[in-house]
Every structure is written in structure tokens, then in C-alpha cells.
Amino acid sequence: MSLLAPAKLNLCLYVGRELREDGLHELRSLFCPLELADRIVVEDAPGDGDEVVCPAVRGPNLASVALEALRARGWQRPPVRVEIDKRIPIAAGLGGGSADAAAILRLAQGEVNGLPGLAAALGADVPSQLKPGFTLVSGAGEVLEPLPHPGEFGVVLIPDEEGLNTADVYREADRLGLGRDPEELERLGKELRERAGSGASPFEYLDLLANDLEQAAISLRPEIAEALAALEEAGAAHAMVTGSGPTAFGIFEDIVAADQAASALPPRYANAIVSAARRTLVS
Predict the structure, then answer these.
(1) Whole-model pTM?
(2) What is the pLDDT of residues 51-105, one digit of tens each?
(3) Contact between 6 and 33 (Cβ < 8 Å)
(4) pLDDT of 3-50, one tens digit each?
(5) Residue 263: which residues within 8 A CB-CB, separation 6 or more?
(6) What is the DSSP code string of 18-45?
(7) Which residues are marked as active site?
(8) Does the 2-276 domain belong in CATH 3.30.230.10?
């Protein structure tokens, strides 16, 4: 069985200033799945236990944690061997690990109850990846409101060779006093629902595309600002950081314009990735 685990792009990310009782930040975000995706092959295991193979990831793998969680819930399928071909940059703010974990959880649809709760326990980005689609996300990532697809647009992603730890970025944001009051978060969530909920292109609400963690990510990794400037110089309608960074991205009218812009970037950004918004849901 072959699975796709799409990257998610934060078209915006608004973060609450105060911590919730569970120690997490309240947020409002638009999640957009991309054609960029990890490829996962699942087959019968040769031995008596499950096996997850992902050479690109050193140490614990969230897909392994997801598989263990399914077994703890009584999932009875015979042992499986999972091989992950990582195409989403690691620790890049693109939700690659969460996408892989969600893909594993989808294996047990109809066989294990409470998958959304299980996904939320694995990480804030995992619930939205159970059924990847254009989504307004609130709470700490567990409240999902599917929206109509925003139509065609292309993106150019500039990842960093070294990822950023999400917890470190949030700590830096707290240190810098970044974030918004609850009333402002509520207002922004309502505006996102009204303006993006009609299926409008993000080009129609560029003023709402902001990331409250961007300043913190740049504080920890100043060269991100140079990548953003390069994307703007290449013609991006808007450039920002996705998630907790360090990936910078620019949006373009279509995949052709994005490809041309990537070719025009300075040689130091030869690792730039061109992708498009994913239209179809992943089974």
C-alpha cells in the first residue's frame, strides 16, 4: 500500500500571547496542503513486530509513535513494515512529521475509535492531517473547519539546511512578547472565515497573510530575512515564514510563475522547492 503525506503551508498564523491551562498557545491559522508530500509504503513485516524505516530521520520518528499508539488502542492488523521516503524538509515548519504520523493513523480508519483525539495527543498539527484539505484551524490545532479550496496558486519554498525546533521558536516569541489578545484572535478568525470561506484566492486577502512567529524565527535564524527578500525580489506577491520556520515561502499566480521565480533566485537558493496547493484529498 502506498500513502501520501502532504506538507502543510501556513498561509497565516496568529498566536495568542498568553498560555492556555494546558501550556499551549491558542492560535488561528489557514492550513493549505501542498503537492509536495512524503511517500510512504506499507507492507507486511518480515518479522513478528512493526518496523518503521526512514533513513532521513535520526532518532525518534513520530510515525513510529503513531503506530505504537494504534497498537495500544488494540489495532489488530498483522505487523507492518513502513518505509518513508522523506521529500518534505525536516523541522522546516511544513508539518512533515505530523503528516507522516497522520498517514499512519489513517491506516486504522474504521478499525480504531477516537482517531482525532489520538492525533491531538501526538501533536498540534496532526489532527488537520488526518484528512488534509484547506482548513481554518483554531484552538491549539485541534479545532478544524474545512473551507472550499482557494483555487490555483504556486509557491516557492526556501528551506534551511538546519531546521528549527518549534518549542525554541515559541519560547523566543514569548521572550519577545509576541502574540495577540483573545479578542483580536477571535476577530481575526471571523475575518478569515468570511474572506477565505468563499473559496477566494489568497491573492484577495493578502493583508491577512501574516505569521506571528516570523519575528521569533528570524531572531533565532537571521538569514531567513535574506530568503524573504530574495523571494520578494523574484516577484512573489507575498513572502513570509511558514509555521515555526525556518522555511520561507512566496506565493505566485500559478506553478509556471513559481517555477520561473525559482530559476531567478540567487545560486545560494538552489535548494528552493516549487509546489502548488493540493486540490484532492488524500485517501
Answers:
(1) 0.93
(2) 999 999 887 899 999 999 999 999 999 999 999 999 999 999 999 999 999 999 9
(3) yes
(4) 999 999 999 999 999 989 888 899 999 999 999 999 999 999 999 999
(5) none
(6) EE-TTS-EEEEEEEEEEEEEEEEEEEE-
(7) 8, 125
(8) yes
